[in-house]
Design brief:
Elements lengths: L1 H131 L4 E5 L2 E7 H5 L10 H15 L4 E7 L14 H18 L8 E5 L11 E8 L1 H17 L1
Parallel strand pairs: 3-4
Antiparallel strand pairs: 1-2, 2-5, 3-5
Helix pairs in contact: 1-3, 1-5
Length: 274
């Protein structure tokens, strides 16, 4: 009986010891799991905080991307406008350049025509100087060649006369020879008179006398020296025409301005075609 009781006691003590050990092991395991849970919760919180920060950064980056897209679209629009504006400016500059080139051509044509005209006047002046020498005053004024001859040489000492003297006939012959070498030039004979006291009833006044004197010169150039009358005009200036005290008749030699401008017009037309 005692042995049974002893055996039961031993078994009970052993069982208690095993239970106590298992309880301790369970408590240790629970403590370990609690610590792991705590660590896991900490890591979870860290992950959540990181996720929140990441989401914030993503939202910020998305906003920046949106702004960049809008800025890029605006830049592309502005670039398109700038390109179009630059294209228009380039076209305008090209048109301006073409216009300047055309005007340069026109200016060259005009300058060439003027140079040609000046050459004609210079040649005419040279011919007249060689022909007349010191017999008459020859000059270029306002684009025309002027031959000034004293009325006393043309009509004698009588300031109311409009009959050309024999002495003047030789001079007019030399002038006519020079003029006939330049058949494309226009001629105006300008009379200037200051015979204020006119008693001859065939002469109305100084206007009349100046015109008659100029006409007498033209008539002699035409009839005696074969100068084409279509080239000549008569102009009477009375006592108001001459700036000098001594009256004089002027032979004014002009280029054919209608031909001059026709030359320019035709040259411009040909320049445009080219």
């Amino acid at each position: 009986m005692k042995n049974i009781i002893l055996l039961a006691s031993v078994i009970l003590i052993s069982t208690s010891s095993v239970y106590a050990q298992k309880k301790k092991d369970l408590l240790d395991e629970i403590d370990k799991l609690r610590k792991e849970l705590k660590v896991t919760k900490g890591e979870l919180n860290d992950s959540r905080n990181k996720e929140k920060a990441t989401l914030t950064r993503v939202e910020t980056m998305e906003a920046q991307v949106k702004d960049l897209k809008e800025t890029n679209a605006s830049l592309l629009t502005n670039m398109g406008s700038f390109t179009e504006l630059s294209k228009k400016k380039a076209q305008n500059l090209e048109k301006s350049l073409e216009s300047l080139q055309e005007k340069d051509k026109q200016i060259k044509v005009i300058n060439d025509a003027i140079s040609k005209n000046d050459s004609i006047k210079l040649a005419t002046l040279t011919i007249l100087k060689n022909a007349l020498g010191s017999d008459a005053n020859i000059a270029v004024k306002n684009g025309t060649v002027l031959i000034t001859i004293a009325n006393t040489l043309l009509f004698g000492e009588n300031d109311k006369s409009y009959a050309v003297t024999d002495k003047a006939k030789g001079l007019l012959g030399k002038i006519a020879t020079a003029l006939n070498k330049k058949a494309d030039l226009k001629i105006t004979v300008e009379g200037n008179s200051n015979a204020l006291n006119i008693k001859d009833k065939s002469i109305s006044d100084n206007w009349d006398l100046s015109a008659k004197q100029a006409a007498a010169v033209v008539r002699m150039l035409q009839k005696d020296f074969k100068v084409d009358p279509k080239r000549m005009d008569v102009l009477g200036k009375s006592e108001y025409g001459s700036s000098s005290i001594e009256t004089a008749t002027r032979i004014i030699i002009n280029p054919q301005f209608d031909q001059f401008y026709s030359l320019i017009k035709e040259s411009m037309k040909n320049g445009t075609k080219g």
